[in-house]
C-alpha cells in the first residue's frame, strides 16, 4: 500500500513504521505552534505562523546524521544501533532502508559534487564517500599509522576539504557498535585536504561531536561532549590555508542540556540538537517509597532544538517529544528543518535556510 497523508506504511521485517504528517504523536493543529518557543524577540522572524512540527517517520533506535539531497528530493538518516541508513522520500513520503549493514554510520553530509560522505563510527572506523555508481571510496581510516577512534560528524567546506570529529562513542560499548580500545592518544578534529592528506587540526577537545562553519567559513564551531563544567560549543578562527586558531567558548549548556549535532543558518544562527545530558542529582529523592537519584532537569523540558545567535545567546527553542541528536536544512527551498530525534524523524518549515 502506498504512503498517503492518511495512511501508515509498515516496512515488513524492519520493525519500522513511517507515519504521515505527525498523526502518530498528536501533532499540534493550532497556529502558531506552541512547540516553537521564542526566547528572544529576534527569533520571531524565523517562525512561520502556519507551520507546525510534523513527525515524518518512526521506528528507529537512535536517529542521527541527517543529510538532504536536493536533486532527488530525499533525506538520509542514520539509525545507529540498528546498523543502517534510512531514506525518507520527500515526494511520496516513504521511509525505507538505504544501506544495511552500514558499519554503524553516524554523521552524513553531501559534498560539492552531490556525493554522500559518511562517518562509519564502529567496526570499520572510517570516513567514506559513496560514488555516483554506488561504489565506496575510503577517504580516511587511520592517522599516523594508527586507526581512527570513531568518526562522528562531518562537514564539507566550499573548497572541498572535509572536516570531521573523532570521539570514542562508537567503540565504547555494544549498543552503537563494537567495543574496542582507542588507538589514538587524543580525540581530534581532522581535515581531509583535496589531495587526500589527513591533518589533525584540533587535538585538545575531549570527545568532539557536532561541527559546522559560519556562513563566511571564517569560523568553525565544534561541540565538546565533555566540556567543563558543561557541554560546550567552541569557536575557532579559520585562515585561508585552513589553519585553526583563537579557541573561544561560544556556548555553555548550563541547564543540564546536551548539545549534539547542529547546523548554521544563513544569518549565522546555530540550530542545535538538544536534550538531557543524563546528569544525576547529588542526593536521592524519595519517590513512591524508593530513594531515586533523579535527573538534573527534566527530559521533557530539554528535548528539542535550541537556537543560538552568532554571539552564543539562546533565542529560540523547538520543543520535541524526543531528544534531538542532529538536524539539517532541506526541502525544495532549503527552508525545511529536518530533525533526527531518538526514534523518529521530525520536520518544520522555518523562515530561513542553511548556510551551505
Automatic annotation (TrEMBL):
The lineage of its organism: Bacteria, Pseudomonadati, Pseudomonadota, Alphaproteobacteria, Hyphomicrobiales. Residues 62-343 form the SMP-30/Gluconolactonase/LRE-like region domain. The keyword Transmembrane helix does not apply. It comes from the Bacteria. This is Gluconolactonase. InterPro entries: 6-blade_b-propeller_TolB-like, SGL, SMP-30/CGR1_Lactonase. Keywords: Hydrolase. One of its GO terms (molecular function) is hydrolase activity. SUPFAM superfamilies: Calcium-dependent phosphotriesterase.
